[in-house]
């Protein structure tokens, strides 16, 4: 049971009456009707990879977990319509593979792809590694099937790019983290499968303007840029320590960007394009040097390094994660201000800063010192320094959660930083979809009953 | 007053107490509070270019029109963040121009762009000419400001690509046609400004598979395709008659596709790319011949022809429009079935079929014969043949409204074709946002009071 009642980061363990594993949408509807009748809270769960406790029951022992893991079918790949229809419990990696087997790309890719499930990706509006080119999960969502809190099944599994026939219910579910109903199926949009990639390791000059570099790369790559990942020297060092056979690449004095172009065409010379773009960046003085992967194994090594950062942090003693985003025009300013806040808070703290800079999204992580209790340290930082960092992001028009969601751990942040009118609208939606408050109770919005009378 | 109370297609004229023209968001909120207090229905209006009567008051004379036309400011262009913040009353063309002046592209382009306004584009989730590359209006929406039915202002004008902090309220407004509140401002995502374009006139072979041709063009253009517009010979002939100096291009025996690639890079040879792609399409036997624009004036001429089709229809005596979309894999089947339905209904009817085939979206228009009353003819077709055509689209997994919306004219179609669960969810949302039913009453959803008790 523990794998279902403990969150991914092992920060919290709840308890549950039972873990139910329906095999069909009808069974999900039956469960919801029964729970509604008995007033039992339902915690929907996919791969249980939430960083915010979005899929973890409370400690009351009066909630049930509905795991979608048995509903993992690929329902249909339509290569001509460029769409794939799946059960919500399908593992992201399996959906990627099914698309690739049909010569197409599911352009959603993230660290947890081997275990996270599509329903969870929709519930958290997952982002990941190629948002700069392809967008977030919501941008890929063509159709949805979901069970509402009274057992009503919404069935809108159309494969249409365009369908302007009233409110777009599927968009309500994207990012709702199971609080409005249980997503049981989805149709996702596919793209032409890239057959060529050019991947480069850009050693940034000190003070190199990230946003301006990004703008140059997007423009001169004809927007064939799929990835623009920023990594500091410290994050790279952590990753290197976690690898058995790390590549011999180093960071520049301003850090590193891993940039990748992708193309499905035989008629575009991607390496030449990358070389031309890098030459412009060098001429602008923004990068000291660059290394263009000459083979698939070199490309893979760069990516393995990027993906080993979380493991590197974990090996050291973990990190307190800050999944912030700011407008691109403020990214440099955030880095400067935040670094100074960390120094003032405790000059001995170490940072691991990296992330999807192409989207203005940084994982601004404070490393847990090797000799301290991780949970205690996390609590201390989150009640102090974290709020300073989030204040800084908010003051720059940014956010405390770029792609990880709100879940149970960040509700207080939503109340602190969310626009009052927007939260009022969120409560209206919650009440409309879940008047009895049985859908993932405790996640995202606090009960509307506590809202002051207007 | 008539310009405000009559719909764009001049099919319906309502009446109104007054046309109010607020200049600020606060004035909009004041109006809404007053109307809520008095129980007066509010019809928000932008450029009044709805094809579905979405912005037209009823005949009761007890509704007010709130025109956003005075709120037309460009609030901010942020070239580094690639975003633009505007008042909802800003005219689309002016927003495009403001972006272009900053070296960026607002990738929303449609026939009415000289008069439609951003609030209306959001309200209808406008599509248009470059959806295949850039998506619909909702895909460009980064931030929103809106007044709810009790005067609450939702203010979420952030310039963030990623902001997963609970329900995405702005997505509720996209496609809601003013029935959930009044959008007063928005932040839109911009893209690198294309500096090169390659535009080609593809003369389709008889029976050429449109979807397979599209897949080839997307793949081998590295997805630099921005436009894939289908036109039948009849539509081209109508357009030609409406032009003073029409280009000398002809349709192929299977019709024509106007395809355009766009690139912001100096390093990608677009003409060579287009030539390579066209050679593959010719080799596949899907196009008889192709003509690649050799100059900006040739390119403009092709576009003027495409854009003159609605005017050509109007000159003849108008058309009954069917804004259908089907999955790409069914587009050919729809064309075959629909043509046979039209022949069976009345062998003398003429069609003008064209549209955004890259999105599976066809404007399947039945021409009004020159000598008959347009309104009478429209009524007759819409109560008979139209339903047959929509039935066919629905049976193929398609929709009766791809991009025009529901408004007042298509409510019965939503009830006929909409999934029951989805309509139930829509009613919940409507009730949550507008419990008194004062926001654009009569558009999209019928009052929930008539919903049978559950």
From TrEMBL, chains A, B:
<dbReference type="InterPro" id="IPR004113">
    <property type="entry name" value="FAD-bd_oxidored_4_C"/>
</dbReference>
<dbReference type="InterPro" id="IPR051264">
    <property type="entry name" value="FAD-oxidored/transferase_4"/>
</dbReference>
<protein>
    <submittedName>
        <fullName>FAD-binding oxidoreductase</fullName>
    </submittedName>
</protein>
<keyword id="KW-0274">FAD</keyword>
<dbReference type="Pfam" id="PF02913">
    <property type="entry name" value="FAD-oxidase_C"/>
</dbReference>
<feature type="domain" description="FAD-binding PCMH-type">
    <location>
        <begin position="12"/>
        <end position="193"/>
    </location>
</feature>
<comment type="similarity">
    <text>Belongs to the FAD-binding oxidoreductase/transferase type 4 family.</text>
</comment>
<dbReference type="InterPro" id="IPR016169">
    <property type="entry name" value="FAD-bd_PCMH_sub2"/>
</dbReference>
<dbReference type="GO" id="GO:0071949">
    <property type="term" value="F:FAD binding"/>
</dbReference>
<dbReference type="InterPro" id="IPR016164">
    <property type="entry name" value="FAD-linked_Oxase-like_C"/>
</dbReference>
<dbReference type="InterPro" id="IPR016167">
    <property type="entry name" value="FAD-bd_PCMH_sub1"/>
</dbReference>
<dbReference type="GO" id="GO:0003824">
    <property type="term" value="F:catalytic activity"/>
</dbReference>
<dbReference type="InterPro" id="IPR016166">
    <property type="entry name" value="FAD-bd_PCMH"/>
</dbReference>
<dbReference type="GO" id="GO:0022904">
    <property type="term" value="P:respiratory electron transport chain"/>
</dbReference>
<keyword id="KW-0285">Flavoprotein</keyword>
<dbReference type="InterPro" id="IPR006094">
    <property type="entry name" value="Oxid_FAD_bind_N"/>
</dbReference>
<dbReference type="InterPro" id="IPR016171">
    <property type="entry name" value="Vanillyl_alc_oxidase_C-sub2"/>
</dbReference>
<dbReference type="InterPro" id="IPR036318">
    <property type="entry name" value="FAD-bd_PCMH-like_sf"/>
</dbReference>
<dbReference type="Pfam" id="PF01565">
    <property type="entry name" value="FAD_binding_4"/>
</dbReference>
